[in-house]
Amino acid sequence: MELSYMSDISSFYSALSIRKVFRPQNADGKQSRIADYFASNVFDLRAMVKRLSAQDLETMTKVMKYGGKIDASLAERVASAAREWAMEKGATHYCHWFQPQTGATAEKHDAFLWFDKQGNPIERFTGPELLQSEPDASSFPSGGIRSTFEARGYTGWDPSSPMFIMETENGKTLYIPSVFISYHGEALDFKTPLLRSNGSLSVEATKTLHLIGEKKVTHVTTSVGPEQEFFIIDKKHAMKRLDLHLSGRTVFGRKPSKGQELEDHYFGHIPSRVQSFFNELEVELYKLGVPVKTRHNEVAPGQFEIAPIYEGSNIAADHNQLALKCIKSVALKNGFVALLHEKPFAGVNGSGKHVNWSMSDSLGRNLLDPGATPHENLVFLTFLCGILQGINDNADVLRASIASAGNDHRLGANEAPPAIISAFLGNTLDKILNAIESGSADKVNAEKIMIDLGVSHVQEVAKDNTDRNRTSPFAFTGNKFEFRAVGSSAPINYPTAILNAAVHDGLTKINKKLEEKAVNGVVSDNDLLLILREVIIQTKKIRFEGNGYSQEWRDEAAQRGLSNYSKTPDALMVLADKEKTKFLKNAGVFNTEDILSRLAIQQERYIKQCLIEVNCAIEMAQTLVLPVCIEFHSKLMKNAKLSSEISCSSPSKKMAERFGDDISHVWSTLEALKIQVEKITSGDALDHHHLEKTSKIISEVLMLKLEDLRSAVDTVEAFVPNDLWPYPKYSDMIFGIE
């Protein structure tokens, strides 16, 4: 009986196609601990110790931690060491890995192969080859910053983010994290603005600390931890859906009988096949030095999340791109397709990327840690006010930084923060700021509140100074802010750079007031509180402690004068406002030409993404839905005729009549959509100078007609038998994982 049982179990797992995960092993053939192979494919300081001199290692340590430049001679030695290390691990090629404004990463591989003076083959990787490469930039988005025939672009090594080896089944390649700039020096990527914003914010924040008496601080860094949400569905289902394959979301799909209303998926048991996927994903990410900490089921069926330990924002952004890459590739190996779109399925929650953001100084202090008595922690209060000032004054551009066609489906729904930018601080901090505003800061008691959970094995827990508010786009959560409105597919570099620049702006304004009151370069506590009081009063409209999903908040926000850009085309147009974007120039993140080029790129991307979705819908309706419906309608008509001939009572005739009307509605809405597409894509509607107008027409007209077609198609889906329907239904996909 035992053998039979084990055989049944073996057959069961074989049927599920659970992929075996091969974890790294130690010299004794036993499974290695994570700590033993973490970052084993990263050329970090630990790897450099064995290959660089003490002086070179010291220089690289400073550059990697605080930024700086690498001279040609050091670059030559680092290149030689990196090549030796990479070749020892089996790498044959190298590439400069960069992040153009496509939402994906890019790379051009070159072999280490070279020839000596005698014509003999050798391996070579030089300092100049490490420092810079020259990919063809003509086919990458530039937003009109250059002509197509001006093809030259440069990738430059970013030494603050370590090189790493990417493995595939057929080879290994040394990846060099890089910036991407044009021939004339304009930033063509997402990494460069983030690096610039980090540098500017460090200077301004250090100045703030000096003015309030913290003279020992030499620099300030930002830390980020993105919580990455995504869906997983069976590959066999995804490959049968043209819309998922080409656009990332389902343009058709009737809501199943069960969705997420039972709330039984969130933090539920992870299915065995998904567990195997996570195990393999974590091994790959650990080898790449990505500190994945948490994994769990999300709210919607088929939806999951991974979250890392916090890192410096630049490396965290690189690691998030690696995570996205690995999620997709490992999912395929396990028979899945990972969906990173913000709203792949209608009727259930979409996916976001909660970017947890904080600041630390060179003394190792988290500047957003309020401690036990946050009202007395002047450092914390000063930076809190600086952040509020920056958010208050630059909320519209922050909203633009997370605008996309995919995110439009999330923002404002009861699953994601609204398109209104506000800040949630929690009850304790809100009282403290109100007390400072009223001049009674000494009367506020902000000690931690102890709550009794009423569970026998849990005594008491320290309640944080803030509760979690999932309806807020920018919420304080104890010692960091959580920018919850970022979309799941978005690179985090861009919104983080805009956030950094906004905080730089807020601190700049506070520093100006501090300098006016400073004596010998330091402001007294009383003067500091008076300045903070002014900021608290000025920024009160941006603070909201209630339900961000409610209509009452939308009404109140309008009364407060807060913007509500619910659609991407409207949100993006703030980038054309020089007054609203001047803080980006002041922080040295962008110049005017950069800003306008990014506006054009995002408008064009919005238009193209929407048109892809619309064209998928047209093709699926014409070639899949209508033929199946007409065939089924013909069967109903035949049954109705036969029933009439033999005088048999049957609903076939009424069904055929009703279904015929539904098919006609599909046809009419399809034709209306095709006519609108023709109007938009003909002539010069897609020309650079018409992007604003075209994007608004698509948002206000075309996408509504797409929803009309969707409604019509989803209606006929309810009539057609499952075995005839031409593509997998929602119930197959989101509940189809064993």
Describe this structure in words.
Residues 1-15 and 443-463 have low confidence and may be disordered. This protein has 22 helices and 20 strands. The longest helix is centred in the last third of the chain and has 54 residues, at 592-645. It has 738 residues and is an alpha+beta fold. The strands form four sheets. Strands 10, 11, 12, 13, 14, 15, 16, 19 and 20 form a nine-stranded mixed beta sheet that branches. Strands 1, 2, 3, 6, 7, 8 and 9 form a seven-stranded mixed beta sheet that branches. The relative contact order is 0.10. The protein folds into three domains: 38-189, Glutamine synthetase, N-terminal domain (Ubiquitin-like (UB roll), Roll), CATH 3.10.20; 196-590, Creatine Kinase, Chain A, domain 2, CATH 3.30.590.10; 605-734, Up-down Bundle (Four Helix Bundle (Hemerythrin (Met), subunit A)), CATH 1.20.120.1560. It is 46% helix and 14% strand. Strand 4 and strand 5 (121-123) form a beta hairpin.
